[in-house]
Each structure stands twice: as structure tokens, then as C-alpha cells.
Design goal:
162 residues; alpha/beta; seven-stranded mixed sheet; 7 strands; globular; DUF5994 family protein; DUF5994
Amino acid sequence: MEPTADHSATRAKRPSPPQPPVRLSLALHKAVPGGFDGAWWPYSHNLADELPVLVQAMDGVGSITRVILGIERWPDIPHRVAVGGQFVSAGWFASGHEQNVIVLCSYHEGFRTLLVIPPTTAADTAAWLMNTPVPADGSRTASELLAIETARREAVPVDDPL
């Protein structure tokens, strides 16, 4: 008789590491159409990992059933993402449309539009974007806001030789 090993201890499910907190900033009031309702700074471009955390954080604004986002910023957009015990449908904006936004749709609460701050953005830049009031009239696109902050950070003050 050959010896057998008991692998039950190695097969036991290990607890998953704690999820980092969602980096989300919401406006106090819902924006007018064309404006932003806040900003989201995901940790990666992996929608299957990032979306559940965002949707759960948005729980107070209604049950999110669908999201639409820029296809150029997300390499893999699944048609459905599991969030808790439900699925959220995902769609995308084609090239040429604003790519730095995510629209969260709810049957009961309408939709929310968030500025998406790229995951590789420096912390101080992301903090500025998340804490800067976004025009509710839609006068700035997400790409324009990101460009403004990039220019602001890259501006090097010139020392006055006098």
C-alpha cells in the first residue's frame, strides 16, 4: 500500500488580502448634464478588479446596473462584472469620444459621470484633481482637466536674477 498525503490543509481557501480603499471624491450635489459628479482614481486598468470596489462605494446613490467608459484607457472591458451578488453590464465609448470618464447608470437614480484619473498619476496631481471643484456646466472635459494639471505641474518657476 502506497502512502497518501493529506492535502486538505493546502487546499483550504486562504483569506484574500484586504482591498485598498476606493479613491473617490463625489460632489455634494449631482452635476448638470455634461458636468462631473466627482472623480475616481483607480489603482489599475483592470476593470474586473476595480469596478466592484467603485460600485460598492457608490451604494448610497442607487444600485448601479451599467457602466460606460473609454475603451482606450481600459485594455479589457468585460461585458459583465460581478459585484457582490449581482452583475453590472459594461459598455464603452469608441475612440474619438472622451476617454477619461466613467458613466455609472442606475435605473432609479439616473446616471453619475466621474472624471477617471489614470492609475499612474502622481499622488499630488491626483489629489489636486480630486479636490478641485469641477465645473458643473461641462465647460471642461476630463482630458482638459488632466492637461491643465499636467501643465501646472510641469511649469518650472524661473528664478528672478535681480
